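Incident review: delayed structure delivery

Summary: a single-chain prediction request sat in the queue longer than the usual turnaround. Root cause was a stuck worker, restarted by the on-call engineer. No data loss occurred. The affected request and its eventual output are reproduced below so the record is complete for anyone auditing the incident later.

Affected input:
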Amino acid sequence: MVEPFRKNSRWNFKQNILITEQADEPSDVFWEHQGISLANRSLRRTLVHLGTVFLLLIFFWIRLVVKLEKVFVLDSLLLLIKSINSDLLL
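Output delivered after worker restart:
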């Protein structure tokens, strides 16, 4: 049995009567009051911010290390090339 949706309609499903109501608009729901206290929410928000800052610091630290490693490797290669050239000239 199919019937169109109506506010407060009754449907029969496997010998059970289902009473349905139209859902509230998401903007009408007070999401802040869903069982999480203000202190808990503040703690979670702080932990997320600290974790984000920590991950960004790690990312930029890795970039710095890679950049410095490139400089040291290139510098070492230049010294090696100069020493080989000087050996060849002798």
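Verification: The helical segments are 38-89.
Action items: add queue-age alerting; document worker restart procedure.
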